[in-house]
Design goal:
Structural class: alpha+beta
Strand content: 25-35%
Largest sheet: 9 strands, mixed
Number of strands: 20
CATH topology of the largest domain: FAD/NAD(P)-binding domain
CATH architecture of the largest domain: 3-Layer(bba) Sandwich
Shape: elongated
Distance between the termini: 31 Å
Length: about 350
């Protein structure tokens, strides 16, 4: 018997485990043979405080102090540069306003990223306070904290059955049966199927594919100090990584929960959009991958007890904001589970609660 079973070993599950383990007997179940295998290992690993809707942005802001202190600071300087063609003026200015960027000259943008074409670039805007996140360091920091307080982790433990009897959960996973008073659903793209297995009405958590290609830097530039590059209307984005560039077509194709892979045509189209403002073409792709970003219908996270089953707790719908919001989201989850007054304000908690869908 354990107090709490968490289903899902990504950033959501590990972060809430770290918050709960000092106060309860906690077990974490992960279907794969390693933690953080799905969306958490395929993140663009960037912190943009002004990214997402107002609810997500509030969680981003609330997470900053932890991210700056966790494991000695998991944030590193990057910056963000929005670029647009001359004919994209209106959409460019809307995006620049939304991200609260400062418009700069095309010449200044090219100084930051000399790959940009002098003849094709029309507009640019920048902000300094966008950061790389050391996602592996953050995951391992949460894992170490949780295990130091007794967290039991079971990998290769795909959940195959969930029953609720005599006010206890019986969870069959990896051939074993785990019992618990409380079940935390941190299953990412599988959040709704896990709920259904537990007899809980789904919320409508929908997975969408996001693809990524790693390419040699066109033109042979040293890109290590370049900012994150973003196309207007998020038609693509790119960032330096390990001496090369990561380029995403910023796709959002609906997919069933699965081990996602990139579609060659989607990548090719995204790279073509990226090339439109560049002085040199993409010559080849080193490697590619895809992950699933899972959204609730209103694109805000879902954090709270299910209104029809108070022994079932939702921590889902992280979308593309899992690492950005993990510190604040896990703190709220732990506050609610441990019956403490949340640090976040009441209105924000209500906008995150699963009761908004019931």
């Amino acid at each position: 018997m354990t107090d709490i079973v968490i289903i899902g070993g990504g950033i959501a599950g590990l972060s809430v485990a770290a918050r709960l383990a000092p106060h309860a007997d906690v077990t974490l179940l992960e279907a794969e043979d390693q933690l953080g295998y799905h969306a958490s290992s395929r993140s663009a690993a960037v912190f943009i405080e002004k990214y997402g809707n107002t609810v997500v942005r509030a969680l981003n802001s609330a997470s900053v102090p932890y991210l700056k202190s966790a494991a000695g600071n998991v944030l590193g300087p990057r910056g963000m540069l929005l670029v647009g063609a001359p004919e994209e003026k209106d959409d460019f200015r809307a995006d620049a306003s939304d991200f609260e960027l400062v418009e700069i000259s095309a010449a200044d943008a090219i100084k930051k990223v000399p790959l940009l074409s002098r003849t094709k670039l029309g507009f640019a805007a920048f902000r300094e306070d966008v950061f790389d996140i050391d996602t592996d360091l953050l995951l391992q920091s949460f894992r170490r904290d949780a295990q130091s307080h007794g967290l039991a982790i079971h990998t290769k433990a795909a959940v195959t059955a969930i029953d609720y009897q005599n006010r206890q959960w019986l969870i069959t996973a990896g051939g074993d049966i785990h019992t618990a008073d409380l079940l935390v659903n941190a299953a990412g793209a599988w959040a709704d199927p896990i709920a259904g297995m537990a007899g809980i009405d789904p919320i409508g958590i929908s997975p969408y594919r996001r693809s990524m290609a790693r390419i040699p830097v066109p033109g042979g530039y040293d890109a290590r100090e370049w900012p994150l590059l973003d196309g207007v209307n998020e038609r693509w984005y790119a960032k330096p990584d390990a001496g090369q560039l990561l380029v995403s077509p910023a796709d959002e194709d609906p997919m069933p929960p699965q081990d996602a892979w990139a579609d060659d045509m989607v990548l090719a189209e995204g790279l073509a959009r990226f090339e439109e403002l560049m002085a040199h073409p993409v010559e080849r792709v080193t490697t590619n991958w895809a992950g699933l970003r899972s959204f609730a219908p209103d694109h805000a996270l879902v954090i709270g007890f299910d209104p029809k089953q108070p022994a079932f707790f939702w921590l889902a719908g992280q979308g593309g904001y899992g690492f950005q919001t993990a510190a604040a989201a896990s703190q709220l989850a732990a506050d609610l589970i441990l019956h403490r007054a949340p640090e976040l304000d009441r209105d924000l908690c209500a906008q995150l609660s699963p009761t908004r869908f019931r």
